[in-house]
Write the structure tokens for this entry.
Amino acid sequence: MSGNTDNIRFITMGELLLRLSPPNYEKIRTTDEFKVTYGGAEANVAASLSNLGIDASYFTVVPDSSIGKAAIRYLRSNDVHCSPCIYAPEGRMGIYFLEEGFGVRSSKVTYDRKDSAFAKYDFSTVDFKEKLKGFTWLHLSGITPALSQNCRELIMYALKAAQELKITVSFDCNFRSALWGWQEARDCITEYLPYVNVLFGIEPFHLVGPDGRDLKDGLSMNPSYKEQDRIFREINKRYPNIKAIGRHVRYVHSGSENSLKAFMWYEGETYESRTFRFNILDRVGGGDAFASGMIYAVMRKMPAEDIVNFAVASSVIKHTMHGDFNITDDEESITKLMNQEYEIRR
């Protein structure tokens, strides 16, 4: 069923964040203490894959301080290789505050990451061909270019180096309206897509055709198989370099109960997963767990139907854990969930 991953070396690049959240679902305005952990879209993917046994590395820039070193130590505790990381003498640690949702109250994220060491770093001084030498898979996120012009250049440097080295590239669009505008994001990310092999997220900002027509016209937040297949085929027609596309669909029943399913374009066909309904302990990192689950299943050469279901099941399991990381070190526990028979309600 699955392929060998011994020859795979994975690396991802992005900003590592300090996460502060009130305990026991409290609001920031009422708490007098915060729980401390670390995360970030790309780091979450690296940690998830590392816990599943993939040789995973991470590149970031953190301040040369106790906080920066603690953040890197947290990643290393999850067996992520951090030797590519840079300790910068200037800049601060990026932070985000999380109010965890409960019942009818949804979760809320507040960013405090301006002028971070990562956002301010001059990446033109980095030899990305050297950083990526020996790796077989590079993962990037649309959050990074939203942080600064330096970070936009980082993504392009990495993409061009990966293309020269013939490295598989995955990219999660990860649009965050709190970081940049729709038009700006669309214009920027569209420039990256010719370098991408595996794509996550199909927000309309990167689906505008050469004639300005929105390829996503008429596609709802809960698309039918036929609608989703049409969009996947349009993307593949315009970007034949993209061999796989994953998009998960969320049904929100309350702040603490959701359902998930996904669509995937793979080897010229569209696949639809099962729908999973579940209770939420911590939603942050759910999308990254979906991406890492799909990447892992593709690496393992699972059948297409198993790839999309494994990805969704990985995300569901992450929702049961505190923190950003999907600390699941057992492929069997994910496959057991994805094959479990239970009543599906929406």
Notes: The two ends are 31 Å apart (CA to CA). The longest strand covers residues 244-254. Residues 149-165 form the longest helix (17 residues). DSSP finds ten helices and 15 strands in the chain.
